[in-house]
Structures are given as structure tokens and as C-alpha cells.
Write a structure and sequence with these properties.
The structure is a single chain. By secondary structure, the protein is mainly α. The chain has 7 helices and 2 strands; from the N terminus they run ααααααββα. The protein has helices at about 1-20, 25-35, 40-60, 75-90, 95-105, 110-135, 165-180; strands spanning about 145-150, 155-165. It has a two-stranded parallel ribbon. The protein is globular and about 50 Å long. The N and C termini lie far apart (about 55 Å). Keywords: Membrane, Transmembrane, Transmembrane helix.
């Protein structure tokens, strides 16, 4: 029960921050996707970079065990699904997290987005066997792999000679640098 309460508190706080920075407003997200206002993109890049550094730095310091974390299988269907998600995001102005946040903040249009997402998930569940038969869910690029070898992880690495912790920290630094380099708004 304690884990459920903690998840609700963390989820509520995350949603409040999303709403505070404007991520629950489809017009703000539309401006980001059209590269006219990049504030939310900068926040996303900064958050990803910081969490990469904290996660893999914590692994190196012995504070975090990333060995139990799940690595998703690389498959063509993931890339196709990502494109479908991107198209849906561009058309609706919501991604799944921001749509739920918008619904929680009282936006009525988000109700249709969330309902559509649930119907889509249900339809995919019904069609799963047919999708699997197409080969879209077959592993590619080695399946469950990491870029570099992560100590304690049970996954192979694409580049075994590279230490995965260092790769994660370097990628985190790159994301942070990009977050600071890209402008807030598109130049006129």
C-alpha cells in the first residue's frame, strides 16, 4: 500500500510540474513540435541528461544498481509505434503523460485524447497476434542490448569495449549541453 501511495504522490507532483511549465496545453506543445517555442524541449533534455548522470554516476559510486533495470527489446514495431505516437502527438497536441495531466487539470478535450488512447490500447491488445505474425515484433540489432557494457547488467552491449556507465554520463552531458545551447524561441 505504501508503494501505491508513493506512486500517487510522485505522479501527482510530476503532473503538477507538467501543468506548471505548460506541458498540459496542446498549443504550447504544438509550438514546441513546430520548433517555434523550445522551452519544454529544453526542460525535457535537461531532465533526461540530469537523470542519466545521476543514474550512471550513482551506479559508479555504488549507490544505484542498474543491473535490475529493464532494457526494452529493439524491434521494428517499436520504431513504427514511435512514429504513430509522434503523428498522434502532433495532431492532438498531447503525448500520453501530458494528456492525462491535462485531463487532471480539467481540460475537456483531453478526455477524448485519453479515451482514444485507451481504445487504441484495447484494439492493439485484440490485434496483437496479427501484429506479431507480421514480424514487426521480431528483435533487431541484437534485441535487448545496451550501447556499452553496464556492470551488473545481464544484457549484451553493442560496443562491449565501452563502459556503459561512462557512455550514460557522456550522453547525459550531451543532453544538458544541447538543452543550454538551443534557443528558447525560434529566431525571427
Amino acid at each position: 500500500m505504501q508503494q501505491i501511495i508513493l506512486a500517487l504522490v510522485i505522479g501527482g507532483a510530476f503532473g503538477a510540474v507538467l501543468d506548471l511549465i505548460g506541458a498540459s496545453n496542446p498549443s504550447v506543445l504544438g509550438k514546441m513540435l513546430s520548433l517555434k517555442a523550445l522551452g519544454i524541449m529544453k526542460a525535457i533534455l535537461l531532465a533526461i541528461g540530469l537523470l542519466l548522470i545521476l543514474t550512471f554516476g550513482g551506479q559508479m559510486a555504488g549507490l544505484v544498481d542498474v543491473g535490475h533495470m529493464s532494457v526494452k527489446t529493439a524491434e521494428t514495431g517499436v520504431f513504427v509505434g514511435g512514429m504513430i505516437l509522434g503523428i498522434g502527438w502532433a495532431l492532438s497536441g498531447y503525448c500520453p503523460g501530458t494528456g492525462v495531466c491535462a485531463l487532471g487539470s480539467g481540460r475537456r478535450d483531453a478526455l477524448f485524447f485519453v479515451a482514444g488512447g485507451l481504445i487504441g490500447a484495447w484494439a492493439y491488445t485484440l490485434a496483437y497476434d496479427s501484429v506479431k505474425a507480421t514480424g514487426l515484433l521480431n528483435p533487431i540489432l541484437g534485441g535487448k542490448v545496451t550501447l556499452g557494457q553496464v556492470p551488473g547488467a545481464k544484457y549484451d552491449a553493442l560496443f562491449p569495449a565501452l563502459p556503459g556507465d561512462v557512455v550514460g554520463i557522456v550522453l547525459g552531458l550531451v543532453f544538458i549541453v544541447v538543452a543550454f545551447v538551443i534557443p528558447e524561441r525560434k529566431a525571427a
